[in-house]
Prior knowledge:
The complex is a heterotetramer.
Chain B: H1 11-23, E1 28-33, E2 36-40, H2 46-55, E3 60-69, E4 74-83, E5 88-97, E6 104-106, H3 115-126, E7 129-131, H4 158-166
Parallel strand pairs in B: 2-5, 6-7
Antiparallel strand pairs in B: 1-2, 3-4, 4-5
Chain C: H1 8-16, E1 20-22, H2 33-37, E2 49-51, E3 59-62, H3 68-80, E4 86-90, H4 93-96, E5 118-120, H5 127-143, H6 148-154, H7 156-167, H8 171-177, H9 180-188
Parallel strand pairs in C: 1-2, 3-4, 4-5
Helix pairs in contact in C: 1-5
Chain D: H1 4-13, E1 25-30, E2 41-47, E3 50-57, H2 65-68, H3 77-81, H4 90-104, H5 110-139, H6 142-163, E4 172-173, E5 176-177, H7 184-209, H8 212-218, H9 226-231, H10 237-240, H11 248-251, H12 272-296, E6 321-328, E7 333-340, E8 348-352, H13 355-358, H14 361-367, H15 375-382, H16 386-390
Antiparallel strand pairs in D: 1-2, 2-3, 4-5, 6-7, 7-8
Amino acid sequence: MEEIEFKIAPESKIKKKPSYIKPWLGLKYLFKKPVTIKIPHEKTQIAKKYRGFHTLDWKKCVGCNFCGQICPARAIEMTWLEVDGKMEKRPHPKIDYGRCTFCQFCVDVCPTGALRFIESFILTSEWEEDTIQLFDWVPIHPEKFRKLQESYNDWRFPVEKIEFNKETKEVVYHLRDGEVFKFKILGYGIRPPKKQKGGTDSKPD
Amino acid sequence: MANGQEGGMSMREQAIVDKILEKAPYAEGKVRRERRIEFTVPAERIRDFLTLLKKNNFELMLQITPVDWPNDGEIELIYQIWSVTHRTHVMVRTRIPRELEKARMPTVKDIYPVAETYERDAHDFFGVYFEGNWKMEMPWILDDTEQDIYPLRKDFDMLQYVKKKYKILDRFDENKDNYVI
Amino acid sequence: MVDWRLFEPLFEFARKRSLWIVSFCTGCGGIEMPPLMTSRYDLERFGMMANPAPRMADLFLITGYVTPKTLKRIIITYELQPDPKYVMAHGSCPLNGGVYWDSYNAIKHLDKYIPVDVVIAGCMPRPEAVMDGINKIMEMIENGTADSWKRYKENYEWYKKNQDELFGEGWREREARRWIPWLMDKKEE
Amino acid sequence: MVAQSELIKEARENGMDLLPLDKDTYELFFGPQHMATENFSIILKMDGHRVVEAIANPGFLHRGFEKLAEFRPWHTNVALLLRVCVPESDVPETIYSMAVDEIIGWEVPERAQWIRTTVLEMARVSSYLFWIMGLSFKLGVYTAGQWAAAYRERLMALFEQLTGARVYHIYTIPGGVRRDIPSDRWLHQLKDTVEYIKSKLPDFDHLVFENYITFKRMEGIGVMNKKFALSEGVTGPNLRATGVPYDVRRADPYLLYPELDFEVPVLNEGDALARALIRRFELEQDLYILEQLLDMGPPSGPYQVSDPRLKNLPRFKVPAGDAFSHVESTKGDFGAYVVSDGKNKPYRVQIRGPSIAHGIRVLEHLLVGSRIADVPVILMSLDNCPPDIDR
């Protein structure tokens, strides 16, 4: 039978001699610049295509639900929205950061390139009923997000507060620059809600 | 890499298969591809066959894979062994009935001692009982208040179980409980 | 008798700058803890350190998903910590199940079982995000809003009910005695 | 103050099982709340400070991947299965992708193979640095740990540029990789990093691997011989420390490894020190492999197979069949067995973590007779990774 030929590590590589001078050479590191990033005062460099939060171009999104089907965490739910009293023609993905694993397969499969991601990644919140709504959102427009990111440059979530009214299903985004963005959730699923009011029972088949 | 069967390359593997089959006429064997061979053995002869393999320098047991086939009413057990000497991976397939009372196998712990761990694993997730392994009843990974739950079996309804155990699925919206995967 | 409440702002100040962490890596986020504690991100600048004993720790980092088996230990460890104590949940999994939303062996909502102060997003959260969460906890301590330990005391019955529902009544005793037969059996052999 | 005997009597009357007290043994629950164990528990029966008996108690990290994988589309499973091995998450990605490639019969493009090999080796280097950090913290030589963590950050930054994430890369998918190499600058940075880490290896030697403390702490503890290791299914550096030259990269070559030149270090002692030294040599070899890969340069061409079915990932179907694939991780032989029944989801995926072999029975065996202070060192020298036991 065939034997395997392997090279064996030479014994000479294993030195077992303690040294008495070498420890003192470590003093030279006192005069070198530390590797520490002093975070509150210094900014870290984030790679260009770091997989952070999502952005969504609402005009481009055709509501195909590819993102919802590929999502391993089932974080994406197609949502029917009403902006300024006008219903969006197609449902848009609503992303739940209590589920999302930031794999961005949803971005890969998006046929129109409406769903994208951006490098921002910091979202911190208290665990309270009203503040935790931040983790569940319909992404905002990439240009808006990019603008906010560039003006603050601290990789934070662009929305400071999300108000969600459970009865009327009205959502208010308070963006970081003070802008307020309102819309209304009409229903979930890929089929349009049957009625304008309370038609939340349409489900994906 | 090295995908599919290449005629000239698998001669060595064919020789191994022939040699084993000569001594174990009850088994069926074939070469899958370079460095991959497999045997199918009836469940009652598994100990004989693994003893034979061990004698033929198949030293490392990598895993015991149970696969549930509810349509056939059987659980397939695949003993995956690697031979450091022959540089070949061998799968020994055997099938046992699926019912909890009948899903029993003799242990191969004395042939491959590490099989004890894999057998505990298979018992915990598939309910296959390995006779002769005294650690069978010992607590392993699962730590459930309900007994006789074998989560990796195909008929285990995971979503129902999760709803029952953790009460709700989604904190943000009650309408999202109808999941379609 | 000194009225210690007068010194409370001073205590808050001291607490904020000496958060000791329970070194209990409960999930995958534990892999980002060593970089955080060591030279690159260096949490010790904030007076934080990982402490092996829960008796001396203030901050409990739930680093990622929690399985029921771990949750038992988390609850026991959490109860061992002295007041005031703070809990921070990493990533998606403790919040809403994360990628394990349909897993039979992962907790979906951590706040049903123990109270949580701060939650950060990410899978897994970068060290910067964790530091942001810690800053948030420090702010909350200063404002006096980090009161999860008070909530646990006040709503202990509710938390206990949820814990018992998940693990069954008397899980603490069962857990303590679980391994004794296996240690005894071997002795008789 | 109640006498102890009365307490025991009372406990017995209440039906509590207590260990017989004829010997001075006591139980010690080691972990999961312990720095060394990483959410893994060992029940130790102690006599003074010696371990009489050890029972490994895994399962704190069990999430049921093998079940969850049956409910997710083929490609998406990559985002799930990589969580099996946290320090080295590229390994589960790669084995799963290789198994799926084999079932489909895809020939992965050369460029993708080059990237996969590079990513695997980078993961190995970062995992070894992580391990050096853990070891030095357990031994009490903290400086080396601080350095290892800092050097690992360089690799993390490179991973971040290449894959878009620090730890969970979700990069290798069936049919290739998800992104191309960002730029030539990345290659230069990788080259610099490799050279940098290589130039720092003597520092680690001085601080850890030639250190008196290391030798005193690790020599002669946790000894296993060749026969025992083979029969217990131990693989990887732990097996090579006992004298068996088994390395998957040589024995069952995959990706570009047949074309690469590297040594497989083997030692015969089989104790904790030998295991540590093997890892140190392998780190050197991995850096050498990375240098070779960089000299070779990425071949031009696509980084993914071109298949129209890849346009519709949720409906992507894999023909019926099964395949086993394994790679060499820093912990050992990491294998995946994938069964497909022709649907858009796997029928069964099993991941074979190397720690299941050396983390349960071998650990229980090696701990017997050791001192309590040696338990973390033995754990660390075995490089036990609980998530891949629990899956």
